[in-house]
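User: Here's a chain of 194 residues. Predict its fold as tokens.
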Amino acid sequence: MLKSFLSTTAAALLVPLVAQSQEMCRYPVLKEAHEFTVVDITGYDNPDLRSMLEGKSPTINCETSPGQSPTCTTPWGGKVYMNQCEANRICIQGIQDREGFLIDFRNQYGTGQLQFRYIGDRRNGFGVYACGQLEGLGVRMGEWFVLEPELVGDRFDKLTYKIGSETRSFNAKKQWRIIYGPPSSATGGNRGSF
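Assistant: Prediction complete.
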């Protein structure tokens, strides 16, 4: 009985150790894409934002690769205004709508409310995962890997945009996609975390 208890306890203790001993790999980032889907919620008290955003096409598409400046476009060809608002972060200041009017996404401090992380000026853009983890999820190197979408703002903190002197409320969803290259060991071949 004691022998059985000890072997069961030892097995239970080894499970976390095995999980922790997975070798970690660096997957270099080849390209990132950030897609913003924007919906107007002016006049809604408690909008169901997820259903309103579901199935809508991105309003702004941004792509960046290490060592290159990011580019942002709209499906209708309207200009996108952006700047680097802090280290490794791009703020979208505004876009030109389908009629040619400027939609201003800046807040009262002059900062664009739609933002994404900029990998272009980092020397070593990479993601660290357990070796084989991405392949285990069915991701092949050189293909887009889609991450969970992020809801930007919520009903308690409505974001606002301006068209001329008119102020309206909006909300947005940010979808992140990334292309990784072939991995290399982050631990020099030694098993264990980092």
